[in-house]
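comment on this one:
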Amino acid sequence: MLGYNFSKFDPNTNSKSPFETLLNLFLQLLTYTNGDFNEAMQWLNELDKEYNLTNNEYGIGDFVDDLKAKGYIDDANERGEIKITPKTEQGIRKKSLEEIFGKLKKTKQGNHQTFKPGGGDEINPETRPFQFGDTMEQIDFTNSIRNAQINHGIDSFKMQEDDLEIRETDFKSQTSTVLMIDISHSMILYGEDRITPAKKVAMALSELIQTKYPKDTLDIVVFGNDAWPIEIKDLPYLQVGPYHTNTVAGLELAMDILRRRRNPNKQIFMITDGKPTCLKVGKRYYKNSWGVDRKILNRCMSLATQCKKLKIPITTFMIASDPYLQRFVQEFTETNNGKAFFASLDKLGAFIFKDFESGKRKTVF
């Protein structure tokens, strides 16, 4: 008789190597230090002193040697400074993807709208009973024949409507996304780090799109007093500046980018923690940090209306809970007919990924 052979559990069996353990922590530290290798290593040394991460067999010096040998760092430059490599930048994005996307649970909820289905399609693993109007191509004959055998027996085999099961198809839409990230000074104000979660989400989303949806496009726009695009590889080094919040400049640049995209489905994700406080009029910056300025607000609402006409929904992720800020976001969202989420920092990634993923699928009955 076959059975199970039980043995003593060894927690060290199949555990990560010392290098892998330190690498995971090192990649996290690089996110917080804006890609600064020296500062990340200083933090790693302090953590090693506190929690004994290394031992006599494998130390921090061995870890640095392995980083260089495996292509994670490079010191072959004019000044001899140690810099992280593109391999490390991708590793940070993958780590962010695992941290954020790996925590999400399967859900059927989500109403992110697309306007035209994409060309690709994928079989849905779930089935449902036959309904009037279903075509022959949708019938799962394997499950339907099995149902007929169970319901009527093999000797008097027959197939009726109640035996039929339908295999649904998911159409995957191609989407062009612009992710706007607020880098104004308030993103690190009052001792709360809001820029690091925003960076993690951007890196995770970029890695998801590049690996799972290669036909999609993702552009990153940062906005402070002005707005400018950055490349995905620059995300680990993104820092907050002494800026006000020029949301208008960010929206104008995002719209200009999406005008050049050929995908029929276009959307803007905006991560911010405050109201618009800046507007560029000619060569002069018009600024008002006190309350909601009607001059700036009206310009924002005008762009929201333009996006609505162009069928570009704007999804705002507000990582602040002030009532007057919520009122601004609600008015802005109603004008665009978009969506708004008032997300805490630890839930920001879950909100964005669920919204993005729900927009990638449209069930065809």
About this structure: The chain has three domains: 18-84, 124-168, 173-364.
